[in-house]
Design brief:
By secondary structure, this protein is of the alpha/beta class. It folds into two domains: 128 residues, Multidrug-efflux Transporter Regulator, Chain: A, Domain 2 (Orthogonal Bundle); 226 residues, Rossmann fold, CATH 3.40.50. The protein contains 14 helices and 15 strands. β6, α9 and β7 form a beta-alpha-beta unit. It starts with 9 loop residues before the first strand and ends in a 5-residue tail after the last strand.
Length: 445
């Protein structure tokens, strides 16, 4: 029986080529010359490269560099004294189709050579699960943990020779927000990025709210937002003219962002644990109840403790719905909530949302949408739970159909006529002031 290949231990040929700074054809030549042997995927037969083998190759490059004329700047700070920089792999290993070695060619020093070196070890820099973003591609999912500046909270320039951190304003743009919403003097960069990491991109939120309104026009043009975060879902509701009666979040940072020049009254924002809020005074007065309960209990990148996690608020949603009796509700969470592991819990929550009280009935369905399809320069799939009071399930399904019809972008190679390709990081950052802080990447051209 073939042993399953772990994506943490192996990378595809194009990823290996990018990491080593060579072409895919060079890797095929190395394979024939037995310089770097891949393994074959047991199902599709594609070449897969062991990350450990790539480390060995780059280790050879390190030793070669130590004997070469390249010298690091002696003024590098202690913070980066242990950092590692690999020279251009293509210059040291270049084989023709017959596998014959060619002597390295002298290289001209570039601007990137004069930058401080990569501040990660090779093992960290080459982790296939955590990589700097590509300038000419959408970002991977922005996360709250970007405030700790992991590899993916950095971006490579268009040449792939240098990288830097994203600023908080840039993270806001990657989430589809106007950066002005986080330009609050007393907040640190880390606090701003952390708040943005949990947000629902407003363009996606607006499509979903419009989808609901198109099928079930609101009698009460009002809204309440729970677990509001930075107000992404609330921006979507405000965009169609709903008036917010209340926005609740337990974070003081999010409270400051929600009160900072937003399309709702600052006095409608409350900093509190949503489980401690008395919603009875809003009963029968609310058109839309929305919110994004904490996703960490269900996230693939978290501990996946689910309903055993103290941050899990999904189980509280039915009682909140029963207290408010909104005409419709819209809740957001991570795709991991709909995984096989969590399916039983999700089904139980949906069952209780359909009948949150003896006299209340809601039709409830879930759908998965990608923010990149709505002009957000980020691949961000999320689960949305939509419920309509006293309505047939087919109407909820049409809400999702309507939201999908508002899609304006598609994955490169998509077949839908009239849609543009996904926006990239470069599309939204091009022309903005360079914040600086560039460092040399481990591969030089």
């Amino acid at each position: 029986m073939n042993r399953p290949i772990s994506t943490r231990d192996f990378v595809k040929i194009h990823e290996a080529a990018e990491l080593l700074g060579v072409t895919e054809q060079t890797l095929r030549n190395w394979d024939r010359a037995r310089k770097l042997k891949p393994v074959r995927h047991p199902i599709n037969g594609y070449r897969m490269y062991r990350v450990a083998d790539l480390h060995s190759i780059l280790g050879e490059l390190e030793r070669s560099e130590a004997q070469s004329a390249f010298q690091f700047d002696a003024a590098i700070s202690d913070d980066f004294a242990a950092s590692v920089h690999a020279p251009d792999a293509a210059g040291l290993f270049d084989f023709d189709a017959a596998g014959n070695s060619e002597p390295p060619q002298p290289q001209r020093k570039t601007d990137a050579d004069r930058l401080p070196p990569c501040h990660w070890s090779l093992e960290v820099a080459l982790d296939p699960k955590h990589r700097p973003q590509q300038w000419n591609a959408p970002a991977t999912t922005v996360r709250r943990d970007w405030r700790k500046f992991p590899q993916e909270a950095h971006v490579l320039d268009v040449t792939g020779t240098k990288y830097r951190r994203f600023s908080s304003s840039e993270v806001a743009l990657l989430q589809g927000f106007d950066p002005q919403v986080i330009e609050i003097p007393h907040l640190t960069e880390r606090e701003r990025i952390g708040a943005m990491g949990d947000a629902v991109p407003p363009p996606l939120a607006q499509a979903l709210v419009r989808g609901i309104a198109a099928q079930r026009p609101f009698s009460s043009r009002t809204a309440i937002e729970i677990c509001a975060g930075s107000g992404g879902l609330a921006e979507g509701a405000a965009a169609i003219g709903l008036e917010h009666l209340l926005l609740v979040d337990a974070s003081a940072t999010c409270e400051a962002i929600l009160k900072h020049d937003r399309p709702w009254p600052a006095n409608s924002v409350k900093c509190s644990d949503v489980r401690k809020v008395d919603f009875m005074g809003f009963r029968g007065r609310v058109g839309l109840l929305s919110g994004g309960p904490p996703c960490q209990p269900w996230s693939r990148s978290g501990f996946r403790r689910g309903n055993e996690d103290d941050r899990d608020l999904l189980g509280s949603l039915p009682s909140i719905v029963a207290a408010i009796e909104p005409e419709a509700f819209l809740f957001e969470n991570v795709p991991g909530l709909a995984s096989e592991q969590n399916r039983a819990y999700l089904n139980d929550v949906i069952r209780r949302l359909r009948a949150p009280d003896r006299h209340l009935k809601y039709s409830v369905l879930i759908g998965i949408f990608n923010a990149a399809d709505y002009g957000v320069p980020q691949i961000r799939e999320r689960v949305f739970i939509v419920g309509l009071k006293d309505a047939p399930a087919v109407l909820v399904s049409r809400c999702f159909d309507e939201a999908e019809s508002l899609q304006t972008y598609q994955q490169p190679g998509g077949m839908r006529v009239g849609l543009k390709r996904w926006r990239t990081i470069g599309d939204v950052l091009e022309g903005r002031a360079d914040p600086g802080g560039w460092r040399r990447w481990i591969v030089r051209s």
